[in-house]
Design brief:
Layout: H1 7-18, H2 30-59
């Protein structure tokens, strides 16, 4: 078992060496994680739509679909 005071240093080393990892039994409610996932995807979709619309406008392209429908 890892002592709590050593945990931040170990997490830092794990992220440097592995890049990411999965935590289980972390206590964060699933509905909160689902909400965060939904909001993140919604924000990214809106951002990409705006970027695409700006690109279409800058290139003078008309009649091009500018709505992103599937982000998964």
């Amino acid at each position: 078992m890892v002592r709590r005071e050593k945990l931040p240093w170990r997490k830092s080393r794990m992220l440097e060496n592995w890049g990411f990892f999965e935590l289980i039994n972390h206590g964060i409610p699933y509905d909160f994680m689902d909400t965060m996932d939904r909001l993140t995807k919604e924000h990214y979709r809106k951002y990409m739509e705006q970027r695409f619309k700006e690109l279409v406008a800058s290139k003078g392209l008309e009649g091009v679909q500018t709505e992103v429908k599937d982000m998964d």
